[in-house]
Specification:
heterodimer; A: about 475 residues; Uridine Diphospho-n-acetylenolpyruvylglucosamine Reductase, domain 2; Uridine Diphospho-n-acetylenolpyruvylglucosamine Reductase, domain 3; seven-stranded antiparallel sheet; 18 strands; about 20% strand; globular; B: alpha/beta; Rossmann fold; 4 domains; about 50% helix
């Protein structure tokens, strides 16, 4: 089980007064403090880790967020921000002495400016909610994490989320123009704005991916793009993971940038097909979803060239989607992949390492060997185009030994990613899950610099303090602050 | 997801079944996004994942239901949108049904609420009683505005009166038990669920169904003794009453030699298709499974059996409103739309078609505030498509969406009209 910092005894002792103080700041339905109703907030998308919070606040406005943070700061109370609670790295895991601040009630689209191609939305708008709001006018918001149906833009900013289509369009950071944030002192600040490139230092870059440790994001200006004229997906089936991996490398090396290049291995293909009925090749060991977009002739040209590349790797089958419905089913399977693994295993840990694409075949082989030696099945589903792996390690949470093995297996995979020149996380964030592996990636002085940034924003380490960095003992903590 | 049941607890077949459901859930949170109450309230506790967690905790500890759990489970519409969304195939319906029965057994609701639920569960399933009650409500309707107060009781009374129709049609002769022979050579023989609330509120739906099926060469039986499907009681946790009604139907239909059981109220269809599960530990199991297997929504049946219009194309745009019990409960999504298109209508689908209109059985009576918000949201989305009329396959939705200027008609009445039947009332 993951270790959390020792709770502040004085905060726990003042629990009732803290709850009463928060009650004065919020509407009745925005504060949860009874044990029974707190329970569903004890975890997020990484349900193996659980911790009951002190209270849950669900503010409806930026001002209420500021009031809550100011109050917590004044009273030395820790705060854990939460969006949709879909984090796979435990980013929203509460702490016993912390107030969870959930942004789910802040789910309004505030403004859409088609002339300048900017949407201004509250942090609790879902990722797909942005696209849905502008799709009628032929626009979309590009980053598309697989949980885009549910995950919220505030969380996307904090994890710098990617997605299948980021191969072409970049991740959240590349599609972000401005933020409204609230600091732990309760100050409301505007960073950047509804225009390209902000004046001065790149605060936006610093805040993106900061995992709720620097400030709470309440509003976001994102770039919206003209939707392409059309898109078509192709399914390419191969006889082994390694062959499919070599094909990915060949596609990237050819200079073609498909809009998406996704990889699934056999267990994943079967689980997702059962959910989406997309016509995935059930006889394949590995499958690539390759999507191109543009005008019909542009699509045809790219698909022809991609087919020619795939042919060099003796594909079992190559199938181009014939209709928008078929494409939708193909993506439904891919986007629901993590949940669909729930059909073949009661629980899974989803890894998120990133590697240079040229090392794909080797890394996939090593993961297969580890799977054998740990005796745990693994399904590989990932953004192959940008080398972002998502091995799903299957285990049974009702069997503690199986969970510990899964954790160790996951850590081995992530160390392997670092060893081949990659990193611990592509898009899910470090959270609590990868926190203790950070020293494998970074030297102590590098971690110290990162902690110093955290301290500059939040000297008392009240905002999401148990995440990202390995826990320090109290004196070291004081020194870091 | 990890569960913490003891071996002793798992000996209870209901707990064992719920444990299976909980073990399928991976807590990914996708379901939250398509849950109507989460959209409105933005609280995990009013989302499927939050409810699953509350129910899990209640069942694991074995404690009686508390007011907090009841509040959040009661707010669930049972629209089952979460089940369509769930990638891991978590059977939320079975879990929440179990929770509702558990609540009914372990929690004492306030007096007024017990009375109301008792009355709803006792009256609506009995057509003659329901007709009487509606006639009373019709008289009281003009005085709805005079009911004072903001209490839940006052809100509910006003909601009930608002939903009462301004006129109550008399009983239709077609719903009496009997056989309606096919016109021409008989190609199939089916039983029709005559139902309960629907035949009182809108007898023309069953009339259109029988007329159209007969014309297509299908003999229609309204079986002696078959009646309410039990879902109304089932959704209020009134387990024994629900099982008794279902048992009566299973026995009545098992005596018949039929090719299908036709359901034209999709809320009922969802429950009848689940009879096999409901009777899984009962001697009647095999018959229940057979009945469940024979049950078909009318549009599902027509799609496979064949349907062809005989009239000229009407110059009308129909907004198809997908009833949750049809789209999520039974996963019948394309059939009604393609049949309406085949009949010659221009079919449009409103935005957010996966979100409930707030009807949800007796939900609009028990949770009028949330139901009202969902109704307004739904009507807004429907009107944005600029339709001439709205079609839906469930009486609850028809009642919920009526009264806002747009004609709201059952799909089958439009199909029957285009195949030679009378023009449905209200159609422009």
């Amino acid at each position: 089980m993951i270790r959390l910092p020792d709770p502040k005894r004085d905060v726990l002792a003042r629990r009732d007064a803290i709850v009463a103080g928060l009650r004065d700041l919020l509407p009745e339905a925005s504060l949860i403090s009874d044990e029974l109703r707190l329970k569903p907030y004890e975890t997020d998308g990484l349900s193996a880790y659980r911790q009951m919070p002190l209270a849950v606040a669900l503010p409806e406005t930026t001002e209420q967020v500021a009031d809550v943070l100011r109050f917590c700061h004044r009273n030395g109370v820790r705060v854990v921000p939460r969006g949709a609670g879909t984090s796979l790295s435990g980013g929203a895991l509460p702490m016993e002495d912390a107030v969870v601040v959930g942004l789910m009630k802040m789910n309004r689209i505030l403004d859409i400016d088609y002339a300048d191609r900017v949407a201004t939305v509250q942090a609790g708008v879902t990722n797909i909610g942005i696209t849905n709001a502008v799709a009628g006018n032929g626009f979309f918001y590009a980053p598309d994490p697989s949980s885009q149906l549910a995950c919220m833009i505030g969380g996307n900013v904090n994890m710098n989320s990617g997605g299948a289509h980021c191969l072409k369009y970049g991740v959240t950071a590349n599609n972000l123009l401005g933020l409204k944030i609230v600091t732990i002192e309760g100050d409301i600040l505007d960073i950047g704005g509804a225009h390209l490139d902000a004046a001065g230092y790149d605060w936006l870059g610093l805040l993106t991916g900061s995992e709720g440790m620097l400030a709470i994001v309440t509003e976001v200006n994102v770039r919206i793009l003209r939707a392409p004229e059309g898109a078509r997906a192709m399914l390419a089936a191969f006889a082994s993971n390694e062959i499919a991996g070599r094909c990915v490398d060949a596609i990237i090396a050819s200079g073609i940038i498909p809009v998406a290049l996704e990889f699934m291995d056999r267990p994943a293909i079967h689980a997702c097909e059962a959910f989406a009925h997309a016509g995935y090749p059930l006889d394949a060991e590995a499958m690539l979803i390759i999507e191109v977009e543009g005008s019909v002739s542009e699509q045809d040209d790219l698909l022809d060239r991609l087919k020619a590349i795939c042919q060099r790797f003796d594909p079992i089958s190559l199938k181009v989607s014939q209709s928008p419905e078929e494409s939708a089913a193909i993506w439904k399977g891919r986007k629901g992949a993590f949940g669909a693994v729930g059909r073949i295993s009661p629980d899974y840990l989803c890894m998120d390492g990133t590697i240079p694409t040229s090392r794909l075949p080797e890394v996939l082989r090593r993961i297969g060997e580890m799977s054998d030696s740990y005796g745990l099945k693994v399904a590989n589903i990932f953004h192959a185009g940008d080398g972002n792996l998502h091995p799903l390690i299957m285990f049974d949470a009702n069997d503690p030994a199986s969970f510990h093995k899964a954790e160790a297996f996951g850590a081995d995979i992530l160390r392997l990613c670092v060893d081949v020149g990659g990193c611990l996380t592509g898009e899910h964030g470090v959270g609590v899950e990868k926190r203790d592996l950070m020293p494998y990636q970074f030297a102590e002085h590098e971690l110290a610099q990162q902690r110093a940034i955290k301290s500059a924003f939040d000297p008392d380490w009240l905002l999401n303090p148990s995440k990202v960095f390995p826990l320090l003992d109290a004196p070291a903590m004081a020194q870091a602050a | 997801m990890q569960t913490l049941f003891t071996t002793e607890q798992l000996r209870d077949p209901d707990i064992a079944a719920s444990n299976q459901v909980l073990r399928t859930c991976v807590h990914c949170g996708m379901c939250t996004a398509t849950c109507p109450t989460f959209l409105l309230m933005g609280d995990e506790l009013d989302s499927p994942r939050g409810r699953i967690y509350l129910i899990k905790d209640m069942l694991e500890t074995g404690r009686p239901a508390t007011e907090a759990v009841v509040r959040h489970v009661d707010r669930c519409l049972s629209c089952l949108s979460c089940m369509t969304t769930c990638p891991s195939g978590t059977h939320y319906m079975h879990l929440v049904d179990h929770a509702r029965a558990y609540i009914e057994n372990t929690y004492k609701r306030p007096f007024a609420e017990r009375m109301l639920r008792g009355v709803l569960g006792g009256i609506i399933p009995r057509p003659w009683l329901f007709r009487l009650a509606l006639m009373g409500a019709r008289v009281a309707r003009p005085f709805a505005g005079a009911i004072p107060g903001k209490s839940m009781l006052a809100q509910r009374l006003r909601a009930m009166l608002a939903l009462a129709p301004s006129s109550v049609p008399g009983p239709s002769p077609v719903e009496k038990p009997g056989v309606h022979p096919a016109l021409g050579p008989r190609k199939a023989r089916v039983a029709l669920l005559a139902g309960c609330a629907q035949q009182v509120l809108s007898p023309s739906i069953n009339e259109a169904t029988i007329r159209l099926l007969n014309r297509l060469g299908v003999e229609v039986v309204v079986a002696q003794e078959a009646g309410c499907c039990g879902s109304l009681n089932h959704h209020m946790g009134q387990h024994d009453a629900a099982m008794a009604r279902a048992r009566t139907n299973i026995e009545a239909w098992s005596k018949q030699d039929i090719d299908a059981i036709i359901v034209n109220a999709s809320g009922c269809g969802t429950t009848i298709k689940d009879y096999g599960f409901m009777f899984r530990n009962d001697p009647l199991r095999e018959q229940a499974e057979k009945v469940a297997g024979l049950a078909k929504d009318i549009t599902e049946y027509l799609s496979s059996f064949g349907y062809a219009p005989t009239r000229e194309k009407p110059d009308l745009t129909v907004a198809y409103h997908a009833a949750c019990s049809l789209q999520h409960g039974q996963r019948v999504t394309a059939d009604p739309k393609s049949l309406l298109a085949r009949a010659g209508f221009r079919v449009v689908e409103p935005a957010e078609s996966h979100i409930c209109c707030g009807s949800a059985g007796t939900y609009n009576l028990l949770q009028p505030e949330i139901a009202g918000q969902l109704r307004a949201r739904k009507l807004g989305n429907i009107k944005a498509t600029r339709p001439d009329l709205v079609a839906a396959g469930n009486i609850g939705c028809l009642t919920q969406l009526a009264g806002d200027g747009l004609p709201v008609v059952h799909t089958i009445e439009l199909l029957d009209w285009m195949a030679g039947g009378p023009k449905p009332a209200d159609v422009p």
